[in-house]
Inverse folding.
C-alpha cells in the first residue's frame, strides 16, 4: 500500500466514532471588524506603532513626495515594478529607477485551477537579477490592501507591486497605499484578496523578538518601511 | 514505526527539572522572557472584544477539519497539484526525511536553507540530511543561535529563550566563522547588533541558495494555498529566492477554506508573539512562474498524528497552531525551561502531544515519556490562553490514566488502592482518622519514603487531636432526619479566630 | 434552607477548625447546617493522578449522601471543581447506568462557600472582625474552574479591621497541584517559594485562600522559611467576630 493510501486509511479508522451525516457547523459570530470610524487614522497609528515611517499626501503631491522620500533616504537607485503609474516617479532624476519587467496579469489569468505551465522567465532582459536587487538602495511599490486593525500592508503581485523578491531584498521599501484600499480588519482584507496570487503581508519592517523577547526592528527583510498614504 | 520526537538520553521530567530549577541564570532568563511575552499577549488580546468568539470559531474550524480530515487532505492535494505543485505523502519521519533528501539530491545541491519549522525538528530532518551529505542551514535567528551553539531548542516560538544576550553574543563570536561569515569585530550584546550580525552572516547564503525547506502554519484545502507566518524575513528569503521549495506539513495543518484564515490570522499572531500581526506572512499557491521557486513540493506527514486522531479525548491536541501561548503562561515551564521536557515540543502542549505521538495509549512508553503528563500542577493557565481552546488539563489527566493502565507506578497504585478502601466507606475513614489522631505525637514532621520529597522543603501539617467528623458527632450527634424548625443558636464567639485545637 | 456541608477529606482529617468555622459562619447567617456522616472524599486525588476509573464508589457516595439537600456547600475550590466538572464525566463511564442522573441532580446544588454566601444568601458583610493585614490567594481551581471571581475579595472587604492588600502575581499557581507536589517536588517548591516571596513582600501577616490544600503547601513553605506569616482559610476569617 502506498503511504498515501495508508495514511488515508488510518485517518478513516481513527474517525470511526464520528457520525458521517454531521456537518459540524462553525459559529461565525465574531466581528467582521472592530472599528467602523477612524479606520485610516488607526491604520497610521498601528503602522507607526511598529516603526514604519508614514506620510499622508494628496494625489497630486505624490510625485513630489516620492522624490522627497528618495532624497531624504539618499537613495541613488530605486527598483520599480511593472505597472507602477509613471507619474509616481516623475519627480525622480534619470537613472534612479531600475525597472523590473515581471508582471502577473500579463502572463496569467487568476484561475488557480487553470494555470499554464509557463517556462521560467527569469532570463528575460527586463527581469532584474537578485544581485541587482541587492545593490539597489530601495524599492517603490503600490499595494493591494491595507488593514487598519493590524497595521498591515498586503501585496498581491498586482500592477506596481511586482515579484515578491522586489520588496524583500532592497533595504528600503517605499510603499504607496491608497486610502480607499485600507480596510478595517483581517476578514475584510481576505475578502478582497485572491488566493491564487502570491501574497505578502507586511506589518512594519522586518523584526525579531528572539533575544530576550525584546522586539528589534530590522533583520533580513527591508529594515525601513516607509508608507505614503494617498487620500 | 514512528520516530519519536525526542532528545535522546533525557531523564524523566522531575529529574531534568531539578537541575533546571537550580540554575539561577536560566531561571532569570526564562522568567524575564515569559513574563514579557505574556504581558504583550494579554495587551493585544484585550484589544479584541470578540476574542471568545474567535477562539470558539478557531476550535470549531479545527474540529470540523479533523473530523473530515481525509476529505480535506484530498482536496488540498488536488488544489496544490492543479497549481503546479507536487504532493508527497510520508507515513513517518524516516519516509519524510528520505523524500526530502531525494528531492534535494535530484537538484544536485548539497546545501539547503531552512525556514524555522517545528515539524522538521520533530522528524530530525537536519540530522537525516547530514547523513546524506546535505547541510541544512537554519535561518531563523533563534534557530541559528541553537544551531551555532550546538544546543537544543527549548521553546516553540523562541527556541533560544533560555539564552540571554550575553550568551548569544558569545556563541556568535565563537561559532559564526565555522559556518560562514564571521561575527563582526567588537560585536556588542545589544539585540540590534546581534540581529545585524545574523543578517550579515546569512545574507550571501540567502542570495545564492538553490533549495529551501520549510514547514507551514496553514494549508488551505479549497485553494491549495500554504501560509507561513514569520517576523524576520528569513522565511520570505527561503520561500522566494531559491529555485526549489520543499514544504513539510503535518496533516493536521489543513484548514477547509480561504475564509477560515480570517480567524487564525487574528488568533495566531496575538497569541504567539503578542503582536497585532507578525511582520511578514507569505501565502503561495503552487508555483507562480517568474515569482518564487519553479519547483514546489509539499510533503504531507503523519508520523503518529493518526494515532492522536484516534483518541477521542486526546485528538483535540491536533487543533494546536503552535502559538506557544501555553508555554509562556505555564508556571512549570517558567521554572524548568523547555529542555526538561526532552522533546522539540515542550511545555503544556508538549506534555499532551509528545506522549500521544510516542504511543502512550499502547501502554508501553519509556519513563521519560510517561513522566510528561505529570509535568503540570493542572492550574489551567494553559487552557485559559489557548487560542483554539485545547483543554490541556483534561488531556493531561486522560494521559495519566493511560500511563497508569500501562502498568507504571507500582507503589502509587498500592497507595491509591489503600485510599480507595478508606474513602469508599466513611466508617473506615473515621477509624483511620482516630488512629492517626491517637498516634499524632509520634508522627514526625519530616516524612520518610515518598513523603520526604514533600517535607524536604515544606513542613507537614500537624494531625489534630480530633477530626471534624468526631467533633460534629460529639457536639451535634447524628445528623437530624429533617431540618429543625428554627436555626440553631450561634455558639459563643471568642474574640479571635479559633487558633488551636490541640 | 437545608444545607449539607461537604467538608472534604482533607479538612475533615487535617483542618477541622476550618470545618467548625464554616458551621459557625453559616449558622450565624441563619442557615441550618447538616453534616451527613456518610461522606468521604470527592475522588480528586485519584482522578487527577490517573486513577479516575476507580472513583465510581466515591462519586456515587457523594451523589447519594447529598441528594436530599437544598444546597451542598464546600470550603474547597478544588473539590468543588472536581464535583462540578468531573463527577459527570466519571458517571458517564460508570458501570451503574443510573449514576449520571443522580450526579446531574446534585451537581447544580453544589456551591463553594463564597458562592453560597454571595449568590444564594445575597450577603457580602458577614459581620466578621479580623484586625490583620491580609493577602488573598485565588487558588487556580477557585479562580479558573469554579470562576469565583471577586466574591472572596468582596467578602473580605467587608470584614471589620481587615486590611486587604494586593498579592503580586496572584494568578500564578502556588505549585501544590495535588500529587504534583510529590511527583515534581523541585518545581512545586520553586513555584511555592515565589508565591511566598510575593506574599511576604506585601508586609501582610496572613495569606488566605478558599482551599486548605494549597494553604497546606504554602504554609508548609512559610514555616520552613520562617517568614513570620501564616496561612488561614477564608472561612476562618469570615467566622471570626469581635465577640
Amino acid at each position: 500500500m502506498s503511504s498515501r493510501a495508508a495514511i488515508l486509511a488510518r485517518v478513516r479508522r481513527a474517525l470511526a466514532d464520528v457520525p458521517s451525516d454531521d456537518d459540524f457547523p462553525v459559529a461565525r459570530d465574531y466581528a467582521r471588524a472592530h472599528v467602523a470610524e477612524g479606520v485610516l487614522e488607526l491604520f497610521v497609528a498601528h503602522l507607526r506603532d511598529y516603526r514604519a515611517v508614514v506620510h499622508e499626501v494628496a494625489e497630486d503631491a505624490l510625485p513630489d513626495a516620492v522624490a522627497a522620500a528618495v532624497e531624504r533616504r539618499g537613495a541613488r537607485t530605486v527598483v520599480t515594478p511593472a505597472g507602477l503609474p509613471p507619474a509616481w516617479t516623475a519627480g525622480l532624476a534619470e537613472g534612479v529607477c531600475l525597472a523590473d519587467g515581471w508582471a502577473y496579469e500579463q502572463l496569467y489569468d487568476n484561475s488557480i485551477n487553470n494555470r499554464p505551465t509557463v517556462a521560467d522567465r527569469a532570463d528575460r532582459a527586463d527581469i532584474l537579477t537578485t544581485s541587482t536587487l541587492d545593490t539597489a538602495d530601495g524599492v517603490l511599490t503600490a499595494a493591494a490592501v491595507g488593514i487598519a486593525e493590524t497595521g498591515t500592508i498586503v501585496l498581491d503581485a498586482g500592477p506596481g507591486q511586482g515579484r515578491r523578491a522586489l520588496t524583500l531584498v532592497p533595504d528600503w521599501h517605499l510603499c504607496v497605499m491608497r486610502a480607499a484600499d485600507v480596510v478595517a480588519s483581517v476578514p475584510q482584507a481576505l475578502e478582497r484578496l485572491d488566493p491564487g496570487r502570491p501574497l505578502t503581508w507586511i506589518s512594519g519592517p522586518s523584526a525579531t523578538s528572539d533575544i530576550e523577547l525584546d522586539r528589534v526592528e530590522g533583520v533580513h527583510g527591508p529594515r525601513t518601511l516607509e508608507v505614503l498614504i494617498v487620500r | 514505526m514512528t520516530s519519536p520526537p525526542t532528545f535522546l538520553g533525557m531523564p524523566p521530567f522531575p529529574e531534568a527539572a531539578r537541575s533546571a530549577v537550580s540554575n539561577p541564570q536560566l531561571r532569570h532568563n526564562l522568567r524575564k522572557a515569559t513574563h514579557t511575552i505574556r504581558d504583550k499577549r494579554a495587551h493585544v488580546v484585550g484589544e479584541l472584544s470578540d476574542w471568545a468568539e474567535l477562539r470558539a470559531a478557531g476550535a470549531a474550524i479545527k474540529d470540523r477539519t479533523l473530523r473530515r480530515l481525509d476529505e480535506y487532505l484530498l482536496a488540498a492535494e488536488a488544489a496544490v497539484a492543479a497549481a503546479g505543485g507536487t504532493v508527497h505523502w510520508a507515513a513517518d519521519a524516516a519516509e519524510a526525511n528520505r523524500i526530502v533528501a531525494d528531492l534535494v539530491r535530484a537538484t544536485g545541491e548539497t546545501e539547503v536553507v531552512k525556514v524555522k519549522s517545528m515539524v522538521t525538528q520533530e522528524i530530525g530532518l537536519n540530522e537525516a540530511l547530514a547523513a546524506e551529505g546535505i547541510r541544512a542551514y537554519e535561518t531563523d535567528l533563534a534557530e541559528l543561535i541553537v544551531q551555532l551553539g550546538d544546543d537544543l531548542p527549548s521553546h516553540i516560538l523562541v527556541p533560544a529563550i533560555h539564552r540571554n544576550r550575553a550568551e548569544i553574543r558569545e556563541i556568535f563570536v565563537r561559532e559564526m566563522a565555522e559556518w560562514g561569515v564571521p561575527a563582526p569585530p567588537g560585536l556588542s550584546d545589544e539585540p540590534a547588533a546581534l540581529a545585524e550580525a545574523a543578517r550579515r552572516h546569512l545574507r550571501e547564503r540567502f542570495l545564492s541558495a538553490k533549495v529551501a525547506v520549510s514547514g507551514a502554519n496553514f494549508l488551505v484545502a479549497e485553494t491549495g494555498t500554504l501560509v507561513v507566518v514569520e517576523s524576520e524575513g528569513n522565511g520570505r528569503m527561503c520561500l522566494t529566492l531559491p529555485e526549489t521549495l520543499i514544504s513539510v506539513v503535518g496533516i493536521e495543518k489543513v484548514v477547509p477554506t480561504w475564509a477560515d484564515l480570517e480567524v487564525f490570522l487574528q488568533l495566531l499572531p496575538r497569541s504567539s508573539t503578542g503582536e497585532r500581526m507578525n511582520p511578514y506572512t507569505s501565502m503561495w499557491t503552487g508555483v507562480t512562474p517568474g515569482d518564487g521557486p519553479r519547483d514546489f513540493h509539499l510533503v504531507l506527514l503523519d508520523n503518529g498524528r493518526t494515532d492522536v486522531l484516534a483518541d477521542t479525548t486526546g485528538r483535540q491536541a491536533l487543533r494546536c497552531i503552535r502559538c506557544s501561548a501555553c508555554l509562556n503562561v505555564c508556571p512549570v515551564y517558567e521554572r524548568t525551561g523547555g529542555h526538561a521536557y526532552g522533546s522539540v515540543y515542550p511545555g503544556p502542549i508538549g506534555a499532551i502531544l509528545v506522549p500521544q505521538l510516542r504511543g502512550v495509549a499502547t501502554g508501553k512508553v519509556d519513563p521519560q515519556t510517561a513522566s510528561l503528563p505529570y509535568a503540570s500542577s493542572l492550574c489551567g493557565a494553559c487552557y485559559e490562553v489557548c487560542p483554539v481552546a485545547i483543554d490541556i488539563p483534561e488531556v493531561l489527566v486522560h494521559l495519566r490514566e493511560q500511563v497508569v493502565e500501562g502498568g507504571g507506578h507500582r507503589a502509587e497504585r498500592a497507595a491509591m488502592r489503600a485510599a480507595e478502601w478508606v474513602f469508599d466507606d466513611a466508617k473506615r475513614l473515621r477509624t483511620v482518622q482516630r488512629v492517626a489522631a491517637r498516634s499524632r505525637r509520634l508522627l514526625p514532621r519530616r516524612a520518610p519514603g515518598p513523603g520526604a520529597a514533600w517535607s524536604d522543603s515544606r513542613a507537614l501539617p500537624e494531625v489534630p487531636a480530633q477530626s471534624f467528623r468526631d467533633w460534629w458527632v460529639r457536639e451535634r450527634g447524628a445528623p437530624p432526619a429533617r431540618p429543625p424548625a428554627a436555626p440553631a443558636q450561634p455558639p459563643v464567639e471568642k474574640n479571635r479566630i479559633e487558633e488551636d485545637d490541640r | 434552607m437545608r444545607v449539607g456541608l461537604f467538608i472534604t477529606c482533607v479538612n475533615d482529617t487535617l483542618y477541622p477548625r476550618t470545618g467548625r468555622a464554616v458551621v459557625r459562619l453559616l449558622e450565624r447567617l441563619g442557615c441550618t447546617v447538616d453534616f451527613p456522616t456518610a461522606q468521604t472524599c470527592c475522588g480528586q486525588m485519584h482522578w487527577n493522578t490517573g486513577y479516575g476509573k476507580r472513583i465510581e464508589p466515591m462519586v456515587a457516595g457523594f451523589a447519594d449522601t447529598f441528594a436530599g439537600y437544598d444546597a451542598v456547600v464546600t470550603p474547597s475550590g478544588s473539590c468543588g471543581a472536581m464535583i462540578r466538572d468531573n463527577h459527570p464525566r466519571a458517571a458517564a463511564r460508570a458501570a451503574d447506568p443510573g449514576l449520571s442522573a443522580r450526579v446531574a441532580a446534585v451537581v447544580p446544588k453544589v456551591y463553594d462557600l463564597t458562592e453560597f454566601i454571595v449568590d444564594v444568601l445575597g450577603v457580602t458583610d458577614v459581620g466578621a472582625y479580623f484586625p490583620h493585614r491580609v493577602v488573598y490567594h485565588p487558588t487556580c481551581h477557585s479562580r479558573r474552574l469554579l470562576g469565583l471571581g471577586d466574591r472572596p475579595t468582596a467578602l473580605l472587604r467587608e470584614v471589620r479591621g481587615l486590611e486587604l492588600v494586593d498579592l503580586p502575581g496572584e494568578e500564578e499557581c502556588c505549585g501544590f497541584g495535588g500529587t504534583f507536589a510529590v511527583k515534581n517536588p523541585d518545581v512545586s517548591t520553586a513555584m511555592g517559594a515565589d508565591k511566598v516571596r510575593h506574599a511576604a513582600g506585601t508586609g501582610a501577616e496572613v495569606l488566605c485562600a478558599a482551599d486548605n490544600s494549597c494553604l497546606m503547601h504554602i504554609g508548609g513553605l512559610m514555616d520552613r522559611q520562617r517568614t513570620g506569616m501564616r496561612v488561614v482559610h477564608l472561612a476562618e476569617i469570615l467566622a471570626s467576630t469581635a465577640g
User: Anything to note?
Assistant: Chain A has one domain: 39-230. Confidence is low (pLDDT under 50) at residues 106-114, 116-122 of chain A.
